[in-house]
Amino acid sequence: MEKEIIKDINGMIEVDRKVMERAILVAVKSRVESKEVVEEHLDELEMLADTAGAVTIIKMIQERNRFDPAYFIGKGKAEELAELADLNDITLVIFDADLNPTQVRNLEKLVDRKIIDRSGLILDIFASHAKTRQAKTQVELAQLQYMLPRLTRAWTHLSKQYGGIGTKGPGETQIETDRRIIRTRISKLKDNLKKIESQNITKSLKRKDYINVSLVGYTNAGKSTLINLLTDANVLAEDQLFATLDSTTRSFELDKNKKVMISDTVGFIRKLPHNLIESFKSTLQVVNDADIILHVVDISHQFYEDHIKVVNDTLKELGCEKKKQVLVFNKVDALEDKAKIDFIRSEYENATVISAKRGINIGQLKDGLVKIYEDKFGEHVVRLSINDSKKIAQIHGLAEVLSTNYEDSYVEIKYRANAENLSKIEKLVKTGY
Questions:
Q1: Which of 77, 122, 214, 302 is most deeply buried (CB count within 10 A of its CB)?
Q2: Quick count: other Cβ atoms within 10 Å of Cβ 156?
Q3: How far apart are the first and last CA of the chain?
Q4: Distance, CA of 384 to CA of 411 (rounded, Å)
Q5: Which residues of 9-30 are buried (b: 16+ CB within 10 A; e: fewer)?
Q6: 11 — alpha (psi -120 to 50), left (phi > 0) or beta?
Q7: Which of 431, 425, 427, 423 is nearest to 392 (CA)?
Q8: Which class for 200: exposed (0-12), middle (13-18), buried (19 or more C-beta within 10 A)?
Q9: Taking a C-beta distance cutoff of 8 angstroms, is the pair 35, 29 a contact?
Q10: How buried is residue 166: exposed, middle or buried, by Cβ count under 10 Å (0-12/13-18/19+)?
Q11: Backbone angles phi, psi at 353, to 5 degrees
Q12: What gap in Å lies between CA 116 and CA 124, rounded to an integer?
């Protein structure tokens, strides 16, 4: 932050003004990667940097067959990076890959600028966007797990101040003390998340009479816009990466007596830190609980196929790869080449092409959900004696009763129930309990 002087009729006042950090983005291109792909990755890193509050001044791509163990990009390129940082008043260098502690320490010493990697940048964005107790706990846990093996960075000042023999012991002792504190904090955060997860499971038990739908997708694919359109959820929907961290669950009626519980989740992204996925598993429990996954894809993005793969790989890591999935290609209004729509429909079975922003083809999406609903909650009819008042009351408690017709001494009940409650009703009718 820096102070800005503003004059008004009463004199001069000082206000805080946020200063954007000036950044260089760095990527390494191997022989097996195309320059186009590496440049697209850097464009995404630029969006991440912008979200975090940095303006990109220079993008640097270094071609190497393998990463340099000491400087990641090699010492010669690191020296060139230091010169560029000096000439362009750079305050921050961001690498589009994960760096090890040694590489960070060497780069910071040579470049004399703050060095962060892609995982550190994503964690910083998550920390700034976390609002609820659950999200803050998850992000802190991921940050501490990321920080633990990198603690040596915090103690380079010991060698600068004293150097040589006699400085190793105190530094190592302090590092071990900090590691112990961090491990204790990690253990406590994990316990807190388990409690939150058990509360979420209790809440999910109340949703069994609904079809549970979970929205997943690459970050900025338009999931929040879609849930707002379907449910008036008023979820924050911005053209910004990771605008939504907490899962939002809302209910709406597809049709008369056809209820849906739909949940929005945090967006996925390539190279998402493993610790972050682990920490957010309690939030992503709604994906495991879902009857169907709506996989939202930005059809207008050049690398939408890569985005689909990233999401599917993340779902596999969450153990959800076998869930019923429907691909929803969003942002068709932003698509320049309309011939792409025919290709999508031929390439992906049962794909729905929509615009959540403009409301295009939303009826088609709902029709697909109605079919899934009817497959899950088929209509059933039971005939009971009107004297079986206890059974009749229990059926009303277990199912969605669609109609009740009385005939002489019998009552015919048409109802809809999920598989679990259907089994209970069949047993009730057959055995009486």
A1: 214
A2: 13
A3: 69
A4: 5
A5: eeeeeeeeeeeebbbbbbbbbe
A6: left
A7: 425
A8: middle
A9: yes
A10: exposed
A11: -105, 120
A12: 10
Residue 322: CATH number of its domain: 3.40.50.300
- Same domain? For 191 and 328 the reply is no
Residue 93: CB atoms within 10 Å: 24
Q: Which residues pair with 68 in a beta bridge?
A: 72
Alpha helices in 53-131 (DSSP H): 75-87, 101-111, 118-129
Count of CA atoms in the C-beta half-sphere (13 A) of 391: 21
Number of domains forming the structure of the chain: 4
List, as own/partner pairs, every contact residues 187-194 make where C-beta atoms lie below 8 angstroms and the sequence separation is at least 24, other chains included.
Answer: 189/137, 189/140, 189/141, 189/144, 190/141, 192/137, 193/134, 193/137, 193/138, 193/141, 193/279, 193/282, 194/282
Q: Which pLDDT does position 45 carry in this prediction?
A: 94
Q: Which residues pair with 136 in a beta bridge?
A: none
Q: Which residue has the tokens 């962060």?
A: 116
In this structure, the answer to whether residues 355 and 217 fall within a common structural domain is yes
278 or 235, which is more confident? Answer: 278
117-121, 246-250, 285-289: which has the highest mean pLDDT? 117-121
> Of 35, 25, 48, 36, whose CA–CA distance to 273 is shortest?
48
Of 260, 361, 344, 268, nearest to 313 (Cα)?
268
C-beta contacts of 174-180 below 8 A and 24+ residues apart: 175/151, 178/151, 178/154, 179/148, 179/151
Q: Are residues 238 and 365 in the same domain?
A: yes
The span from the CA of 266 to the CA of 130, in Å, is 11
Judgement on whether residues 159 and 191 belong to the same structural domain of the protein: yes
361 and 221 housed in the same domain: yes
CB-based burial of residue 157 (10 Å sphere; 0-12 exposed, 13-18 middle, 19+ buried)? exposed
What separation in angstroms does the CA of 213 have from each of 81, 227, 259, 286, 413? 48, 11, 11, 9, 28
136 vs 117, 130, 166, 280, CA distance in Å?
Answer: 21, 5, 40, 10
Buried b (16+ CB within 10 A) or exposed e, 363-390: eebbebbeebbeebbeebebebeeebee
103, 135: one domain: no
Cα 248 to Cα 340: distance, rounded to the nearest angstrom: 32
Q: Which domain holds residue 63?
A: 2-126
* Confidence at residue 166, expressed as pLDDT on a 0 to 100 scale: 40
How does pLDDT run across 335-375, given as a tens digit for each residue? 988 889 999 999 998 899 999 999 999 999 999 888 888 77
Tokens at 157, concatenated: 């000042």
